[in-house]
Design brief:
12 strands; alpha+beta; 25% helix
Amino acid sequence: MRHRCFVLVLFLASNILCNCTTKLNSHSIMTYNIRHGVGLDGVLDLERTARVIRAANPDIIILNEVDQGTARSYGVHQADSLGSLLDLFAVFGRSIDYDGGQYGNALLSRYPILDFQIIDLSTDSLLEGRSVFLSQIDVRGDTLTIMGTHLGLSPQERWEQVERIIEVLPDQDKLILAGDFNFAPTSHAFGRLTKLLRDGLAEFTEEPPPTFLADKPDRRIDYLFIGKEIEVVKTGEFQHPEISTTSDHLPQILHFR
């Protein structure tokens, strides 16, 4: 009996140690199109956005459709506000001037942001201007490159934007490119990107869940693409009572080392 108890204690202790080690050696990243804080109920509530993000407790977050000082968002700098609410570093990446302010993407990080630059992805079409940000983060003494983007609405526009992203991809493998790409996994643009980067959310399942529309998701357009030196530990699944109304997209999260 004592022997069995001893074996059970050793088993439980090893599981706890393993889980703690995995948590210590891994990190989490989320991509989330927040629809400038306006939910499917038409209510602008940035604190609700923060609650959903907090439920997953990610270390790094790529945000799309972020307002900075626009009239429709009452002049709020949304990246800074979310950074304050979540106690994270925050940087905004402009895509266009809009409604008395700016509109674009943002990066939130638990780790120090070493560098941040914005690369214009606007095409010759008359559609909305787009951008990708390129950033380096100090992750416990190691440097990780993070890129975040929100691609256009037409297939030709997205193809041109993917080609531009490929042109500026850093020559390194510790890289994650994430955001709202507005394309399906069957698209030519997806195929072009995955010749160079892996689809991180597909590491554990052949068919990752759809991300849009949040209350009745039927298509996958949000992705986390990863370089060769990124090892996926697991894909994140979390629940929150407001997740289906906070935005028109569902957040996606990846645990990696």
